[in-house]
Amino acid sequence: MRKLSVLVLVALAACGTPQEQCINRETREIRSLQRLLGEVEGNLARGYAWEEYEVPMTRWEVCGHDRITRRDGTVIEKPRMCLEDYTVTRQRQVAIDPAAETRKAEGLRKKIKQLTPQAQAAIAACKTQYPEE
């Protein structure tokens, strides 16, 4: 039942009526905690976490054109190449402490349980303030 109410909250968050916007605004924190809990549970199931890191790279890109006039009068436009820096985001596996992850999951569950009555009251208030026609 709790998972169903969570799915309803997520579904309502994606819509755009005033009531849905109000519910989205009022349940943002609990949805964030649920997302974090899902990540922690995934880490525990896999036995490791994913860490994102950035890698600076360089590539050749066209950055303009040079106009070359030949002796016979023909004009050629030749692309000018420049080295451009960019960043690639990659992921790597990192070790986790299962005991710490379990404590983290329990703390998140406890916080979600604590915030659920407030979220339900806020949803009821949004439905009262913005009744759907």
Q: Which terms summarize this structure?
A:
single chain, 133 residues, alpha+beta, 4 helices, 32% strand, 54% helix, two-stranded antiparallel sheet, elongated
Q: What fraction of residues sit in β-strands?
A: 25-35%
| Low-pLDDT residue intervals, each spanning 5 or more residues | none
Number of helices: 4
Strand order of the largest sheet: 1-2
- Give the termini separation: 27 Å
Helix percent reads 40-55%
Reading the helices and strands in chain order gives HHHEEH
Structural shape: elongated
CA-atom Rg in angstroms: 26 Å
The count of strands amounts to: 2
Which structural class is indicated by helix and strand composition? alpha+beta
Residue-averaged pLDDT: 89
Biggest sheet layout: 2 strands, antiparallel
Task: Please provide a written account of the structure.
The chain is an alpha+beta fold. The chain is built from four helices and two strands; from the N terminus they run αααββα. A two-stranded antiparallel sheet has the order 1-2. The chain has helices at 2-13, 18-26, 28-46, 98-129, and strands at residues 48-69, 75-95. α2 (18-26) runs antiparallel to α4 (98-129). Helix content is 54%, strand content 32%. A hairpin with a 5-residue loop joins β1 and β2.
